[in-house]
Amino acid sequence: MTQLTDLTIADIATALHKGETTAVALAEAHLARMETHRGLNAFITETPDRALDMARASDARRAKGEAGPLEGVPLAIKDLFCTEGTRTTAASRILENFVPPYESTVSANLWRAGAVMLGKTNLDEFAMGSSNMTSHFGPVENPWKRAGDNRKLVPGGSSGGSAAAVAAYMAPGATGTDTGGSIRQPAAFCGIVGLKPTYGRCSRWGIVAFASSLDQAGPFARTVRDTALLLQAMAGHDPRDSTSAPIAVPDFAAACAGDVKGLKVGIPREYRVEGMAPEIEALWSRGVAMLKDAGAVPVDVSLPHTKSALATYYIVAPAECSSNLARYDGVRFGLRVEGKDLQSMYENTRGAGFGAEVRRRILMGTYVLSAGYYDAYYKKAQQVRALIARDFTQAFERCDVLLTPTAPTPAFAAGEKMDDPVTMYLNDLFTVPASMAGLPGISLPGGLSADGLPLGLQLVGRAFDEETVLRAASALEKAVGFGGRAAGY
C-alpha cells in the first residue's frame, strides 16, 4: 500500500472522498515524517497540536457533507505569512518572538478551503537570498545530494524550507513567495514544481513585505496539477490589498487537461548567456523538442533588455526593502535593544536584529534613494523596468508562452557562494525578468544533471494567463516523466 506521505494533493482528495483515509491520519503521517527529517531544518515552527485540531475539524466537516476543495490536505506555510496565534518570524532575529493577532489572506483562503497547517517553514531572512543560508534559525539542507558526494547542498532561496519540505515528502504542498525567483529557483534545485502567479493574482495582505511591487505568493507541490489546485484556493481579489487584481479566478485544474497542439512557444535568444553550463543548454533543447513533439510550435523571440534585468532588480528591490524594513525600529513590535537615547536604541536594535545580507540590501536601497542618486539609479531603474515589460509584451505578439531554463546551475554546496554576493545574485538570472514584468512563471523538473541533481525548466506566460502556462507545463511534465526522488526520502 502507498504510504500516506507519498500521496499527491489530487490523490489525497480522492482517498479522502472514498473513505480510504482520514485527515487525522494524514496529519499524523506527515508530522511523523517531519520529526524523522528534522535534520533538514526545513521548519522554523512545527504546529502538531494545531494540525491535529484542524484535521479533526476537517473530518467532522466531511462527515456532515461540507468538504471544501482542499479538505484535509496538510500544508507547510512559509514563515513570511502571518498566522494568527502562531509566531511569524520572517527568519529574522528582529521578529523572533512575534505572534500575529491576524491571519494573512492567502493562508485564510487555504484554511477556508479545508487545508491543515503542519508548521511554518524556514527561509532566507526577510526573503532576501537565493540559498536559504541567511536565516537566523540556521540554513536549510536540500534533500538531494550529488552522486558520490555527501556535501550538503542548498535548497535554493528564499523559499528553501517550503521546497525542501515538499521534496522530502514532509508535506504534499507548501506556500512560498517569489520576488525575483524565490519560488521557481528552489523548485528547480529540489526537483519539484513551483508556480509564481501574475503580480496581483494572490493578495499580499498579511505577508511580511520585502519589495512591495514584486512580492507575490504562490504554491509548491510535486505535480503541476497540484500547484493548480493550491493556486485555485490561494487566489482571489482582496479589498484590503490595493495591488490585488479584481479579476475572477478561473478553473486552473481544468487547464491542466488541455493539449498544446498549435501553441506557439517562444525561445528567447538572450537567455543563451555566456558561460551557461552545457547541460543546462542541452536540457533547454530537450524541452523545446518535447513540446514540439506534443504539437507545439517553437518560435524564436527577442527580449533585448534581459541583460539589464538583474542590475535593475538589484536597485528596485533593495530600494523597496529599505523602505519596508524601516518599520522595525524597536518601538512598536519585535526586538528592542536599549541604548542611551532614542537614536542609539534604533541603531542597537537594527544592528542586532538584522543579519548581514539584510543590512547590505538596506544600505544599497537607502543609497539609491538618497538625494543626488535617486535620478541616477532608482528613477533610471524604473525606466528600464518599463522597457523589460515592453519586451515581453512584444514577444507575446509572436507566441503564447516562453520556455527557458529556471536557473543557470543545479543546486550548489552550502556556503559555496556566500563570500561573493554578486555570484549569488546571478542565480536569479533567468527568473528576475518575469518578476520585473509581473508575469506568471512556473518551474518544473526537466531532468537530472551529470551529478544526479534536478534541473528545472521555466515557462512564462502573459499577465493573468496562468491557464496557458499550466497547460504547457502539464504537457511538458508528461513528456519529461521525471519521477525523480532524493535518495533516502
Shape: globular
CATH architecture of the domain at 4-258 and 412-480: Alpha-Beta Complex
Amino-to-carboxy terminus distance: 17 Å
Extended strand count: 11
Task: State the secondary-structure class.
Answer: alpha/beta
Alpha carbon gyration radius: 21 Å
So how many helices?
A: 16
The biggest sheet amounts to:
11 strands, mixed
**Percent helix among the residues?**
25-40%
Please tell me the overall pLDDT: 95
Order of helices and strands: HHEHEHEHEHEEHHEHEHHHHEHHEEH
What's this model, at a glance?
The chain is α/β, with parallel strands linked by helices and 489 residues long.
Description:
This protein is an alpha/beta fold and 489 residues long. The chain has a domain of 324 residues: Amidase signature (AS) enzymes (Alpha-Beta Complex). The protein contains 16 helices and eleven strands. It has an eleven-stranded mixed β-sheet, sandwiched between helices. The relative contact order is 0.14.
Write the layout of secondary structure elements.
Elements (H helix, E strand, L loop, with lengths): L8 H9 L5 H14 L6 E4 L1 H16 L10 E5 L26 H8 L3 E6 L38 H8 L5 E6 L5 H7 L2 E4 L19 E6 L2 H11 L17 H4 L8 E5 L9 H16 L3 E5 L4 H19 L17 H12 L2 H14 L4 H22 L5 E5 L15 H5 L6 H6 L3 E8 L5 E8 L4 H15 L9
Parallel strand pairs: 2-3, 2-4, 7-8, 7-9
Antiparallel strand pairs: 1-3, 4-6, 5-6, 5-10, 9-11, 10-11
Helix pairs in contact: 2-3, 10-12, 10-13
